[in-house]
Design brief:
With 324 residues, this protein is α+β, with helices and mostly antiparallel strands. The protein has 2 domains: 31-139, Nuclear Transport Factor 2, Chain: A, CATH 3.10.450; 158-312, Roll (Nuclear Transport Factor 2, Chain: A), CATH 3.10.450. 20% of the residues lie in helices and 35% in strands. The chain has 6 helices and 15 strands. The protein has helices at residues 5-23, 39-54, 82-85, 155-158, 169-185, 227-231, and strands at 63-71, 74-76, 86-88, 94-99, 104-113, 116-127, 130-139, 193-201, 204-207, 241-251, 256-265, 271-273, 282-284, 290-301, 304-312. The strands form 3 sheets. Strands 1, 2, 3, 4, 5, 6 and 7 form a 7-stranded mixed sheet that branches. It has a 6-stranded mixed sheet with strand order 9-8-15-14-11-10. β1 and β2 form a beta hairpin. The protein is globular, with a radius of gyration of 22 Å. Mean pLDDT is 92; it is low at 5-23.
Amino acid sequence: MKTSFSFILALCLFAFSSGAWAQFPFQRNRPEPLKYVDRQCLIDLVDTYFKALVNHDPSQIPFAMNARFVENIDSKPIGEGLWQTASAVPSTFKIYIPDPAVGEVGFMGMMEEQGKPVMIALRLKIVNGFVFEAEHLVVRGLEPKNMKYLQTVRPGILTVISEKERMKRYEITGIAYSYYDALIMDNGHLSPMADDCTRRENGMPASNSGIPDSEADESPNYSAMKSVAQLNTNIMDYIDDIDNVRVFAIDTITGLAIGFSHFRHSMTQPVYPIYNVPGVSTREVKLPPFDLPAAHVFKISKGQIHEIEALGFLAGYMAPSGWE
């Protein structure tokens, strides 16, 4: 007996559909797609997402049928990773970067995992009202001495830019990307960082810190230097390359941009030259080869970067991004 092509096609579609439901059982009762993807809707989606994480319930989020999820550069089924271990939503340390122009939203903040504080950067990509991609960068084991810097967000980061002073989206994007150029080229003048530009990394004051020399972790006290001058010392020369740079969300109302990236460090040259620091000609960094997947939030106004909040975690050298 001959089997019709339409019958075979129907069987294939049924098999595919059944497999899809088996892989994503939470999709059977998923919420309706987002009707609007405006600024407030994206902020609300982030809040809903974290509540769903803590409830360990992906069905609360309108994931697309073919949605992808990556956590700490590891592709995972939706429902694994932080979906199983989150224990408290972000409270006082929260930075939202909604971008309705491209249907993406970024977030950086503090939450809890199994009762312990973790720093998280989040990226959500929305297509046709559904969450098409979700990405977490999670930093665990934060230094206790830096926790005081992770209780509340610096006021300057959250300040709304007056309408007449707001920059164009493409202008903010270009300035954010210029920071990565300045890092890899060891040239602070390649990025318009203001004199008041302060950088923190996993909470640690890293530039323009105000920390006196007597309390600094290193001598000379690089953390107290202004951001441009610090990069011009060649202090970042141990960074070989920065891959997978993505400035994916811009909020023109607050002047915030968020970028994810992947730092590579071969550490083949542990001693490298230092410039513009009296009495210092070299710096030594003895570490095995490593990667540093990272997130940076930039506060940009009047054509300059004024604040940088960053996080990063150690990964194996030349690790893949998780999106291959």
